[in-house]
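Attaching the record inline, Q. Sequence:
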Amino acid sequence: MTSKYIKAAGWISVITGLSLLGTSCKMGNKYPKEVAVLDSLKVQVHKADSVITAVDTAKIKQYNAHITGSIGLLKMLHRDTMSAGAAEVFRNFSGIRWSMEGFLGKRAVMRTEMQKSMDNLTHLGHDMKNGLIKADSVSFYYNFEVKRATELIEAQHISMQTLNSQLPLYTLIALQADSLIALVKQNKKI
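Structure, as predicted:
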């Protein structure tokens, strides 16, 4: 009787072992090119995240506070009549503030989405590499994550270009705005 139990236990062990081999992560990579693309995109998203993280937001907030203070002072002194040139300076000054505020708002969202994208790219690459996704679903997930990562990288590039164009403008226009504010404080027309 014991030999029957031993044989049954042996067969159960063999069947269990075969079922574990069938679901192992060692099934092979059927999508080496796609996994390589995902790995490359993950590196690019990480670089984009690093660039956007390195931006000195304190400096941007300081610039925005300066712009807001200057425009607020004009309003407080009831300076609603000024030359066309002075009005253009303050209009451009305000535009720079809105552009930098927009960057600060997008930055937080982009960083969160980039972290999610890097995680998703990692998991999808692992699952594709190890055959853990149904063949008819691979294309959908792959295309979705590639598109999402590409859009995030592009959004980061555009945001940085915009910011890098606004910072030098701030420096130029701040000098003009400060001199106009000084004239206003002296009760002179601008």
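The longest helix spans residues 135-185. The chain has one domain: 29-185.

More tomorrow.
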